[in-house]
Amino acid sequence: MSDRPAGKDENIIVQLGTLPPSKYFLVHLAGIILMFIPLIYPMGLPVQTSQPVIDYVRTIENLPEGSVVAVSFGASAALLDEQEAQFLATWKILFSNKLKVIFYSTTEDSNIILGRHLGSKVAPDDYGYSYGVDYVLLGYSPLGEAGQAAFVQNIRSVYPVDYYGTPLDNIPLMENINDQSGVDLIIFEYTSCTDVEWVIRQWVVPFNKPALITTLGCCGPMAAPYYPSQIRGFLSGSGAGTEIEVVSGFPGPGAAMSDSKSLGILPWLASMVLANLAWFMRRSK
Predict the structure, then answer these.
(1) Fewer CB under 10 Å: which end of the chain, C or N?
(2) Cis upstream peptide for 228 (omega within 30°)
(3) Which of 154, 200, 204, 198 is nearest to 177 (CA)?
(4) Cα dihedral 219→111→207→89 (10° resolution)
């Protein structure tokens, strides 16, 4: 940091700003420690947030307690780095606002993800939820746009039973719900960029159903033209996953990585500032 080590009679700024090379490792060690802290305990440090993410959160939070939300879950195991923060934060917001949730999977691996993450990383029981009363898992069905159209018009034509084989008529939450009229909001998660058109054509245009979108970063430009007139908000990519965690107050994997980068660089920034201050202070003598 300096070509001449500080003497004992010099002030603390000069001493810190003129560490000898043999002690440079302390700066690196501090950076490593600060990088690991958020990975264990995410803090949700402030980040710049976009309006589509803010509107996404507000749309959910503004629903009256007990409203029914359908989650068309099409996440991919190969793309969890972009999607995991998005859907974990979304589930926490839904549950914390006491909304009824109908989960249905549209890809094979999305059903596996849902089964593993719902309960282990976000536990409905922690929010006082009861299966069949407050939320339901309908399982996997290979829904293309035709399948979404069928679901909108007659849920039981696609899912006569839930994931566990229980007839929908025997599930309290589904007793009076069999089409889009029983759903107050659709959250559409997908990984194929043009799929955004499905929810627009099958939910929004014919029924004016409020819709939210979660997708990959590369698919954001195809969702953006529909916002805010036809979709109320959208998340695209891991950056939006971090934003929703910070906005909602539920830090998770996205905030952990963002916090790690923000904190980890502080010792190096501090060392540069102190080194320059020490140089100017010595020069002024």
Answers:
(1) C
(2) yes
(3) 154
(4) -60
Q: How do residues 109-132 score in pLDDT, each as one tens digit?
A: 888 898 889 988 999 999 999 999
Question: What share of the chain has pLDDT > 90, as a percent?
Answer: 56
Considering the domain 51-250, what is its CATH architecture?
Answer: 3-Layer(aba) Sandwich (3.40)
pTM score, two decimals?
0.84
Q: Does 204 or 38 have the greater pLDDT score?
A: 204
User: Chain-centre distance of CA 18, in angstroms?
Assistant: 43
